[in-house]
Design a protein that fits this description.
CATH architecture of the largest domain: Alpha-Beta Complex
CATH superfamily of the largest domain: Medium-chain alcohol dehydrogenases, catalytic domain
CATH topology of the largest domain: Quinone Oxidoreductase, Chain A, domain 1
Helix content: 25-40%
Number of helices: 12
Strand content: 15-25%
Radius of gyration: 19 Å
Number of strands: 17
Number of domains: 2
Order of helices and strands: EEEHEEEHEEHEHHEHEHEHEHEHEHEHE
Largest sheet: 7 strands, mixed
Distance between the termini: 12 Å
């Protein structure tokens, strides 16, 4: 198959015309990839981040965890899916038997398998999904592949975080720090839940897109102190604040933006600069009774709620897609992420 292969960290992908296709286990499915979103997590992997989390794949490897397409092959034990089914593929792959999967939390599965990390991903023409009956999701005919590719990580992660983890309520003030794919998705979802969203970024073009996603106010953090601006706009601070980027600055700004008893949602994962450790205002967290909440991916059982909102038009992931490129341009998009040079969501179309 044709594939963009990561052969070395901090180097561009190498395009192979005859890379080996992934093999299908008895409980697995092989997906003919129609589209794959380019995620900031891909940049983290390409520069060699996350070794401290055990998320550094052995090279060479075909990454890509935001893929959608049609089922090309199913294992002998797969019962829910057939060749030709349109599917969207959650990146967090449950084992189905650990205590977390048994409780319905496949996104925190003890085995920790991730599509495109543990398996061959969407930067190839064919990708593998482990335990398809548990981990695959049927994609409605009404949702285009390019739109669905933007839901594979950023949108589903934001949905789980905003709706399930911090339980955003109508009328609340929600501050989103970082308006990349995660931040824009969180903006749109919080707006759909009836919240008042303030979007924060250093790129005015990204802030323009955030307004289109429903932000009622925007703050350029390069020009003003975001925590002070948010407290002024909300008369005391946000009820919910989200670090959608994962650097020390956005994490701290998010916490400092909160009112008493506010909830901080951590979606962004850190870089080599932090290696997972960020200094926090612990005394303030105690005195203000702040909550710090993490989120990762989303359980397959929650997809119907999200897809119902997409089909009804309340959520519009396709509006975040600003560029659709062939696989040959994947490296240039990844490189631009190093300097936050991308706006909206880029999708690789096969």
């Amino acid at each position: 198959m044709k594939a963009a292969v990561l052969e070395a960290f901090n180097k561009p992908f190498v395009i192979h015309a005859n890379w080996p296709e992934p093999k299908c286990g008895p409980e697995d499915a092989i997906i003919k990839v129609a589209a794959n979103g380019v995620c900031r997590s891909d940049w983290h992997v390409c520069v060699g981040d996350w070794g401290w989390l055990g998320l550094q794949p052995e090279l060479p490897h075909v990454i890509g965890h935001e893929f959608v397409g049609e089922v090309a092959e199913v294992g002998a034990q797969v019962k829910k899916f057939r060749v030709g089914d349109r599917v969207v593929c959650p990146f967090n792959l449950g084992c189905g038997t650990c205590e977390y999967c048994a409780a319905g939390h496949q996104n925190t599965c003890a085995e920790g398998n991730l599509a495109g990390f543990s398996t061959s991903g969407g930067y190839g023409q064919y990708a593998q999904i482990l335990k398809a009956d548990l981990n695959l999701i049927n994609l409605p005919e009404s949702v285009p592949f390019t739109d669905a590719a933007s839901m594979g990580c950023r949108f589903m992660t934001s949905f789980h975080g905003i709706v399930d983890q911090v339980k955003v309520a109508a009328g609340e003030w929600v501050a989103i720090h970082g308006c990349g794919g995660i931040g824009l998705a969180a903006t749109q979802i919080a707006n759909a839940m009836g919240a008042n969203v303030i979007a924060v970024d250093i790129n005015d073009k990204s802030l323009e897109v955030a307004r289109k996603m429903g932000a009622v106010h925007t703050v350029n953090a390069a020009k003003t102190n975001p925590a002070e601006a948010i407290k002024e706009l909300t008369r005391g601070g946000a009820h919910v604040s989200v670090d959608a980027l994962g650097i020390a600055t956005t994490c701290l700004n998010s916490i400092m933006s909160l009112r008493k008893r506010g909830r901080h949602l951590q979606i962004g994962l850190t870089t080599q600069a932090e290696k997972g450790f960020v200094s926090l205002p612990v005394d303030m967290i105690v005195a203000m009774e702040l909550q710090l909440i993490g989120t990762i991916g989303m359980q397959p059982r929650r997809y119907n709620a999200m897809l119902n909102m997409v089909e009804s038009g309340k959520l519009r992931p396709g509006e975040m897609v600003t560029n659709v490129f062939p696989i040959e341009k994947a490296s240039s998009v990844i490189e631009a992420m190093a300097s936050f040079g991308t706006v909206g969501t880029t999708v690789i179309q096969w």
